[in-house]
Amino acid sequence: MPAAPASPESASASPTFLEGTVIRSTGSWYDVQTERGVVPSRVRGKFRLEEQDVTNPVAVGDRVTIRLEPDDSGLITEIHPRRNQLSRRAAGRRVGLEHVIAANIDIAWAVQSVRLPKINPGFIDRFIVMAEVNEITPGLVINKTDLLREKDRADIDALHDLYAGLGYRVLRTSVVSGEGVETFREALRDRTSVVAGPSGVGKSSLLNAVEPGLGLRTGEVSLKTRKGRHTTTYASLLPLSFGGFVVDTPGIREFGLIDLDPADLGHYFREFKPYLHDCRFPNCTHDHEPDCAVKAAVEEGLITEARYTSYLNILDSLHLGERDVGR
After folding, report:
1. Does any domain span residue 167?
2. Do residues 69 and 207 share a domain?
3. Structure pTM?
4. Are 177 and 147 in contact (CB under 8 A)?
5. Structural domain of residue 126, as residue ranges?
6. Are the C-beta atoms of 127 and 120 separated by less than 8 Å?
7. Tell me: the pLDDT tens digits for 59-93?
8. 235 and 292, same structural domain?
């Protein structure tokens, strides 16, 4: 006799799909926070094939759909549209490869230290440009103010006043003295934020001070190289007990720009905007062209030499394909 048709009870159960947020990325596995808890997940190969110009098709902060597997792991089957993303040019020799630091961010903080390691204005300007390109509010944290020497005070004050004068929020913080810790906590409240900067500037220590329960690993700056040692290995989206989330990132020494036309760079230097339409040429790059209103503003002291020089360095690196992103 022919076999009886399978009953609904004996048929294979339909796969279970869950939505969630990527809270940690190791490069090959992703921790996804779902209503059932955290599910370690892999990504479908098709996403890597479709996104060959990025190092990571899925980033911390992404909303995703996963399919539960028999071993209780997940398979990411859908990446939901991003509101925004903070990206940089990936380190290495592959030209034009993008690395997404985090997705769906409200504010991005560039963290620098007064010394050990010393402040890198070029990093700050590149970070701000990439944040604004992606419609993310940028801010600046000047950390380790307890190490401020009197001979450096004028330079730090000038840096603070420059960016604050441009309308960016600038905070001074110290885990040792407690300066600015409460202010930074309030700045993080009820937002999804990302903190980024070179190793050794004290990102993890600052976050531990803001939220003691995080227990993030911290390290010391090498006295020989004056550079920090990597303590944060992978980007993580961390919940805050007072509301909001913060992305702790591995140390970033260089911040290369990606997907930005050199002709558009001037639009992301706020102090240039009043003069952009007064140049003789509509496609002026504010470099070599005659009758440039931006260059005239620099000569008149309306735009600082430091920021204009930084602009030229970034412009040059965009023309060169970012072969040197450390300046």
Report:
1. yes
2. no
3. 0.86
4. no
5. 86-248
6. no
7. 999 999 999 999 999 999 999 999 999 999 887 65
8. no
